[in-house]
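Journal club prep — side note

Before the paper discussion, L.F. wants everyone to see what a predicted structure for a comparable chain looks like in token form. Sequence:
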Amino acid sequence: MKIIGINGSPRAKGNTRLALDTMGEVFAQEGVEFDILHIGHNLSPCSGCFRCAKTHTCTLPDDGLNAMYDQLIQADGIVLASPVYFASVTSGMRCFLDRIGCIDMNNGRKLRMKVGVPVAVPRRAGVVNAVDELFHYLNYAQMLIPGSLYWPLAFGQAPGEVAQDAEGIQTLQVLAQEMVYVMKVLDAGKAQVPLREGATMRKKYLFAAIILVALCVVLILLGLRQSGALTTGSTAEGGSVSTQTEVQAPITATLSVCGDIMSHSPDQRRL
């Protein structure tokens, strides 16, 4: 069995790598191969061209992403690790998720039913948002996500500081153990329960939905046009019809309050 770790930090040897290495020690003890792919600064953002729907690969200038995707397909488990930048994952990790997600969505969802876990490395706050972003992708990719003793994170800013977070290290170690356990269960059960073929969006239903939305828009526009013709129409002699706006009587309301502050507050009396 094999696990791929994605290092979303710009630093190849920073605290995020240290968190991945902590999990790697557990994987080695369990006899699981573990490779780390460093995103670095090279990935371009997704252009939204959707050419991958035809080619099943990203057609942007080669920056290594297609090779990364091929390695993910061959793996049994995936660890998405990122430091926390402004309560989010790094821009490199965001580019990675957008492009890998788009390729996989248009390539038969090859990452489906793999075991995936998120790992975030914050300085202090904002970590829950970053973990949530990684969770969202793993869930959308239909991966299986085991848990640990706490949120999958370890604190650290200065070089090597993650190693001082005893609770974070334990959380990552348990996360690695649970990840391997689920992978072994899946492997043992393949003979008894074959992997079900994944469902894909039916294009005819999507086309029908687009037609229905377009029809609704046309009907709304026709209704608005007819309403405008009734209010600004002309008489049979060619004179314009004057429209009068009815002046509604003011609406009065009685406000019942309880408490000395409410009843004597000038702001409340103006209501």
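L.F.'s comment for the group: The CA atoms of residues 77 and 103 lie 18 Å apart. Keep this in mind when we get to the figures.
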